[in-house]
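User: Some background: our group keeps a shared notebook of sequences we're curious about, and every so often someone picks one and asks for a predicted structure to add to the entry. Today it's my turn. The entry only has the sequence so far, pasted here. Could you supply the structure so I can complete it?
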Amino acid sequence: MLSGLFKFKKFWSKSKKSKKSKSQAKTEAVASAPTRPTTANEITSGRNGAGANSSTSATTNIASSTDNYAPTSTAPVEPRPSFKDIKIELTSEDALAVKESWKETVGLSPENATTSAAGSPANLFYAQFYENLFAVRPDLEYMFPDIHRQSAALSGLFNAALAMLENINALDEIIERMGRRHAYVMGVEPEHFEFLGVIFIQTLRDRLGDRFTPQIEITWVKIYAYLASKMIAAGGEE
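Assistant: Of course. Here's the predicted structure to add to the notebook entry:
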């Protein structure tokens, strides 16, 4: 479900690649260009020696062999959406439902604020989040050297986003700053955002159970995709 909402991650990846010299780019283009099969006549003419006849024969062979190849069509390149292009639209009912689900998940509601022997609801949520993540992608553990600090940062982002859901554009400066930090300091790639989103939604489902309805899930996907897409765009803009 998340993959369709990250429409421009490929552009962000391109913008992070180092710029190459014209000669280097030309060399790579030539090296990667597809080659056509050598015809039997060309092999024969090469064995028999060079000269005017071999040149004429090679030209004839090239012309005849290219008849079997259709021209390659190039797909049009989509313009990269800017940071300001990314929007989110939610109904008031969806906004209220997702806020209540978050309060229940991290213990912000009075009836769910009790800390058990295992820890607070928020600590339990993030413990399960990272457990789910490292169970399938242990190679990403290096990106989270301080789980407690990063959990607090993630929680703060969602708390702010949900509190200002009706005027979420007010968070643009904060999200943009976070996006640049994730891209240029932490080295986070678009596929990391997408994968973390899948784990985040899965952990919400694990914690809420039947209360995590399909409509609430769709709303959470929209919110996560909006925040992540903004950060990806910020990291890709020069």
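Suggested note for the entry: Residues 3-71 have pLDDT under 50 and may be disordered. The longest helix spans residues 214-236.
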